[in-house]
Amino acid sequence: TATCLTAIEDAGALNAFVHKTPEIATEQAAAADARIKAGDAPAMCGIPLGIKDLFCTKGVPSQAASRILEGFKPEYESTVTTQLFDAGAVMLGKLNMDEFAMGSSNETSVYGDAVNPWKVDDRNLTPGGSSGGSASAVAADLCLAATGTDTGGSIRQPAAFTGITGLKPTYGRVSRWGVVAFASSLDQAGPMTKDVRDAAIMLQAMCGHDPKDSTSADLAVPDFEAALTGDIKGKVIGIPKEYRMDGMPAEIAKLWEDGTAMLKDAGAVIKDISLPHTKYALPAYYVIAPAEASSNLARYDGVRFGHRAKLDAGDGITEMYEKTRAEGFGHEVQRRVMVGTYVLSAGFYDAYYNRARRVRALIKRDFDNVFADGVDAILTPTTPSAAFGLGEMTDADPIQMYLNDVFTVTVNLAGLPGIAVPTGTDASGLPLGLQLIGRPWEEADLLNVAYSLE
Ligand code: GLN
């Protein structure tokens, strides 16, 4: 913990930690020490973590990187952080992210950009998003692991951009209670770690049934670390042809081929599969996610949380809402609220929102079919490229940014577990990762296949 606290001070340029909690860390570390001395030490005991700013942490600023939550200190602790702290983990502070987890580059944060510790010719690169601070902090050794959340790729894409491991569990495996909501039917928290074993250990502490989240699954939790046997003989790995996108860079295609060969050498059976509705995933996601976001973000009204605009004489409650939301939300959040409100409006609900929901069901059915056909896991690239430069993709062309999520959003739409594992580098030495998608609730199996890719 002490080493990490010093490293954080020295790494201010990464802008990964947006709120530091050295007093809490020191106190928790001392308590962990006492537990270790007393012989009562679970695996997470004394492990210094960074916590994404989307998690509510009691008495500690939890702003979802938004101006609208300025000054908000929750009265309660999220279930995930409660469980981690009960297991003896230590909180070093809160981590940078895209505002309300909307973004793929950590450039929509009220705290400014988080920076990737990997550089090419001193060019500042994005750590990805929305869990950009988490990825940057783990990759730069500012903490041993971090929490992330993933609505459309926000754990896996930043993991790939920074050369770390990121796991999005099955929807319902990890409680969403106390995690600021973006798109409730897609959001899922997960571990961002240095390797697969750490992901298994951290998931164990984070997950499990929570009566406070009605979508949390009441299922037994297996021993994830014990599942890491390295034996994947006879496992069937699907390679979906629809992920071989036009114009895929040669280095991504090569990475994918190398990963396939590695799994084959380890005894897996490689099978070509088809997920025919893949090309509709991105448009469906960018209807459903904003729709749910516009509803979830209606609660930020200047009354219940955080920021309230200064009002002029004669302003009524409508002006208070309008001014507060206009200055409290950044551009990308406003864009999502507008898109979401539009697709949910009476005249367009069927044409957009209901159609996107039907597409979502078809995407889920594609996966159900290949799993019913005996496929154990699916191997794809995580991202269409390595980390890009900060400021390279502009606010003026959001579609360009959304295309980053092309390989990751299907997993959220289908509620499946997915893991990003670093497996190579591009020509300039930047990390690249592969994604494995598993059967629902089979994180143990998925982690074991991922373990063979390391
Ligand atoms: N990049 C996607 C978006 O902007 C995913 C974000 C996420 O997973 N939280 O919506």
TrEMBL record:
Q: Which reaction does it catalyse?
A: L-glutamyl-tRNA(Gln) + L-glutamine + ATP + H2O = L-glutaminyl-tRNA(Gln) + L-glutamate + ADP + phosphate + H(+)
Entry keywords, A to Z: ATP-binding, Ligase, Nucleotide-binding, Protein biosynthesis, Transferase
Provide the top EC class: ligase
The catalytic residues are K52, S130, S154
Residue ranges the record marks as coiled coil: none
Instruction: Show the GO MF annotations.
Output: ATP binding; glutaminyl-tRNA synthase (glutamine-hydrolyzing) activity; transferase activity
Domain Amidase as annotated: residue spans:
1-447
* One cellular component (GO) term of this entry: glutamyl-tRNA(Gln) amidotransferase complex
Q: Which SUPFAM superfamilies does this entry report, sorted A to Z?
A: Amidase signature (AS) enzymes
Q: Which InterPro entries match?
A: Amidase (IPR000120), Amidase_CS (IPR020556), Amidase_dom (IPR023631), AS_sf (IPR036928), GatA (IPR004412)
Q: What's an example Gene Ontology biological process for this entry? A: translation
* Highest taxon of the lineage: Bacteria
Q: What is its EC number?
A: 6.3.5.7
Which HAMAP family does the UniProt entry name for this protein? GatA
Listed PANTHER family: GLUTAMYL-TRNA(GLN) AMIDOTRANSFERASE SUBUNIT A, TRANSAMIDASE
Q: Which family does it belong to?
A: Belongs to the amidase family. GatA subfamily.
Q: How does it assemble?
A: Heterotrimer of A, B and C subunits.
The function of this protein is: Allows the formation of correctly charged Gln-tRNA(Gln) through the transamidation of misacylated Glu-tRNA(Gln) in organisms which lack glutaminyl-tRNA synthetase. The reaction takes place in the presence of glutamine and ATP through an activated gamma-phospho-Glu-tRNA(Gln).
Q: What is the designated name of this protein?
A: Glutamyl-tRNA(Gln) amidotransferase subunit A
Gene name of the record: gatA
